[in-house]
Design brief:
Helix content is 32%, strand content 18%. Strands 1-8-2-3-7-4-6-5-9-10-11 form an 11-stranded mixed sheet, with helices on both faces. The protein has a 5-stranded parallel sheet with strand order 14-13-15-12-16, sandwiched between helices. It has 354 residues and is α/β, with parallel strands linked by helices. The protein contains 11 helices and 16 strands. The structure holds adenosine monophosphate and magnesium ion.
Length: 354
């Protein structure tokens, strides 16, 4: 592994290491760092060469723009042309935090950073490690999730090492992240704000501040002709090695159906993986059962989703069945990621009974 590894916590920052990391970014290098959502792969957002390095390190398609991270509201006007008052109201409420907003960009932001678009995505993270790094780096850090393209986003430094240990100059280990799913993305380049990616901040929370908000049609329709507006959302985010299906319906029927399929697979000599909530995990006698979190505490499900998917790649399972997690607030974000991982393979128990 080539990367320098440093460890700290959000409560006890290692300022010397953060200064060194900031200098690496100023010199055009790459540093992976924790944020409250997932780990980011940082490069200087205003340096086209650094952005190109990020794409190369991740194996990311170059039409998939990067999010620019700032650590001060005053940094915003230099990189965006027009800040609608609704966006300011949203920033007031949710920045710093798991919210990304898209605006028209100024010439300061290179097209390499925005995947050739004339708009730019901006986020102000709340994690103190991320904030300090961004300040030492000069104020603008482009940072996609620090995974190899096509793998689940990293929620702990070990995941970054697995994927990018040889490709980055430094990894800052700040412990496991708090949220575990990428930020909510809201596009302000249109008359009515549009959600391009669901996240911790739900549509209902956005409506409270913004009034009318649309969901990008490309997110709602799984038709290959309707492309999502966020270029990254059109890619199959992650395909586990084993075949993943989501089983949907009333709890008892889901459990019965998964057990029936697991038993059948066992008879055929296959190994089955099951993703279950803590409340139901003990109801599956056959297969490797991984508990994702508690339905009664939906944040725990969001936090463990990517970790569980990574763990299953290390077990030799042939098929994975997952319960569905349409939880009240984050369900839309959780299911957006899970459905993509499953290639939209859903088994509906209710429909079959009609
Ligand atoms: P990641 O960096 O892995 O969190 O992914 C960033 C997401 O933001 C991708 O889905 C991008 O396509 C999307 N994105 C970034 N900038 C823009 C932009 N200017 N317009 C639309 N989507 C964007
Ligand atoms: Mg990503």
């Amino acid at each position: 592994m080539k990367a320098i590894l440093v460890t700290m916590t959000p409560e006890h920052l290692n300022i010397e290491a953060l200064k060194q990391a900031g200098q690496i970014l100023k010199d055009g290098g790459l540093v992976a760092f924790p944020t409250e959502t997932v780990y980011g792969l940082g490069g200087n957002a205003l340096d086209p060469k650094a952005s190109m390095k990020i794409y190369a390190a991740k194996g990311r398609p170059s039409d998939n723009p990067l999010i620019v991270h700032i650590a001060d509201l005053d940094s915003l006007p230099a990189i965006v042309k027009n800040i609608p008052s609704k966006a300011s109201a949203l920033a007031e409420k949710y920045w710093p935090g798991p919210l990304t907003m898209i605006f028209q960009k100024t010439d300061l932001v290179p097209l390499e950073t925005t995947g050739g678009l004339d708009s730019v995505a901006v986020r102000f993270p709340s994690d103190p490690i991320a904030q300090s790094l961004i300040r030492f780096a000069g104020g603008y850090v482009a940072a996609p999730s620090a995974n190899t393209s096509g793998r689940p986003s990293p929620t702990m430094a070990e995941h970054v090492e697995e994927d990018l240990g040889d490709a980055v100059d430094m990894i800052i280990d700040g412990g496991p992240v708090g949220i575990g799913l990428e930020s909510t993305i809201v596009d302000f380049t249109e008359e009515i704000p549009v959600v391009l990616r669901p996240g911790y901040i739900s549509l209902e929370m956005l409506r409270e501040t913004l009034g009318e908000v649309r969901m990008d049609r490309g997110l709602l329709i799984t038709d290959s002709k309707v492309h999502p507006k966020a270029p990254g959302m059109k890619y199959r985010h992650y395909a586990p090695k084993a075949d993943l299906s989501i089983v949907e319906g009333r709890e008892e029927e889901v459990i019965a159906r998964i057990n029936q399929m697991a038993e059948k697979a066992r008879e055929e000599g296959k190994t089955v993986g099951i993703i279950a909530a803590e409340e139901t995990a003990e109801r599956y006698p056959v297969g490797i059962v991984k508990t994702i979190g508690k339905r009664s505490e939906e944040e725990t499900i969001a936090r463990h989703l990517y970790e569980v998917l990574r763990e299953f790649d290390k077990c030799q399972v042939n098929e994975i069945y997952s319960e569905a997690f349409y939880t009240p607030r984050m369900g839309q974000a959780i299911m957006n990621r899970l459905l993509k991982a499953a290639g939209h393979k859903i088994i509906k128990t209710q429909e079959e009974q009609k």
